[in-house]
Amino acid sequence: MHEISLCESIREMLEDQAIEQRFERVRRIWLEIGPFSCVEPDALRFGFDAVMRGSLAEGADLEIVSAPGAAKCLNCGATVRVADRFALCPQCGHAALQVTAGDELRICKLEVV
Amino acid sequence: MCGTCGCTEGEQRIDARAQGEGTSRMIEVHLDIMAKNDRYAAANRLHLEEIGVLALNMVSSPGSGKTTLLVETIAALGPSAASVIEGDQQTRRDADRIRATGARAVQINTGKGCHLDAHIVGHALRDLAPDRDSVVFIENVGNLVCPAGFDLGEAHKVVVLSVTEGEDKPLKYPDMFAAADLALISKTDLLPHLDVDMDAVVANALRINPALDILPVSARSGAGMDGWIDWIRAARSRVALGRPIDTAAE
User: Fold this and answer.
1) What is the mean pLDDT of the segment spanning B129-152?
2) B174 contacts in chain A (CB < 8 Å)
């Protein structure tokens, strides 16, 4: 359940942003999560509600946006879209895929008042 | 609707008041949630490079034999050449076992925490004050899931997988095998008593991470320990030469 500590980081970042961008409360937050970010979205939602209680984002809606994963095939050299770490290359069927994108874990948009 | 002129202005005001808020606005941001941990990790990495210390982040399930492996590794390297940061939810037992070898150890108890983060490791590194050109082993909390996502500033993650855990562990817990540069397959002295297929263990680990180094070891019999010690010495000499650490596999 490292998702709890990630939610604590999110709360701290929102508190910093509230000062910087001058807002009082967060109504909605959009998180971009890649398939290789080591995050379980359900665990993050569970932790989010608990951790935001009593903060400027209490009761805020959490919108999770999936980022695509990409990998380079070490056999045929193609750059392909992948959703899991043991995917085969869709071009040549080889298993030697090196993941190149998909570890995103970031706040991309806020609805604030 | 307003009964006098038909406007809807009053409704909007009432609606806004009912929510207890003013008008909301949207803010586009690009805030990396791991940024704080990554800043601490970068500071740890810089500090380790400055003092010429190789840090290895040892990760595995509970019970893979990490501490026994470290005790035998310290015996081979010499107790003055290595020190250990021990991470466990509770107890000082692992640090006590390391100190019995003559090497220095700092114990971190994470309480309910399931992983070490770069901030707590930074404090432990300053408490430990490792000698120049030595090796620091960071024995992470036994957990094959959460520690995969946290950079501690180490040169390499080393995943330990014991032969009793089965061939399919790399497929079931892929993130850790993807994050590691070396997999140690431990407790190989037990192989005569098991049906585990070592070729399948290796094939599954390489399927997740084609760049992974894999070494079978037994801390009990000593088999394979030379290969592991050679791997550590090669990694330490790269740090000593101040070469940038190859993170392409991460």
Assistant:
1) 94
2) 84-86
CATH code where residue A13 lies: 3.30.2320.50
Give pLDDT tens digits for B13-45: 434 434 455 789 999 999 999 999 999 999 999
pLDDT band at A10 (very low <50, low <70, confident <90, very high): very high
Query: For every residue of chain B, which 3-state class applies, written as one string?
Result: CCCCCCCCHHHHHHHHHHCCCCCCEEEEEEEECCHHHHHHHHHHHHHHHHCCCEEEEEEECCCCCHHHHHHHHHHHHCCCCEEEEEEECCCCHHHHHHHCCCCEEEEEECCCCCCCCHHHHHHHHHHHCCCCCCEEEEECCCCCCHHHHCCCCCCEEEEEEEHHHCCCHHHHCHHHHHHCCEEEEECHHHHHHCCCCHHHHHHHHHHHCCCCEEEECCCCCCCCHHHHHHHHHHHHHHHHCCCCCCCCCC
Q: Contact A111/A25 with Cβ under 8 angstroms?
A: no
Task: Quote the number of domains for chain A.
Answer: 1
Spell out the domains of chain B, with CATH numbers in brackets: 41-240 (3.40.50.300)
For residue B114, give the nearest of A1, A86, A98 by CB distance. Answer: A1
Share of chain B above pLDDT 70, in %: 88
- pLDDT on residue B112: 78
**Phi, then psi, of B153 in degrees rounded to 5:** 100, 10
Chain A, nearest residue to B22 by Cα: A113
Whether A45 has its CB under 8 Å from any CB of chain B: the answer is no
ipTM reported for the complex, 2 dp: 0.86
pLDDT grade for A95, boundaries at 50, 70 and 90: confident
Could you tell me the two tokens for A9?
Answer: 């980081």
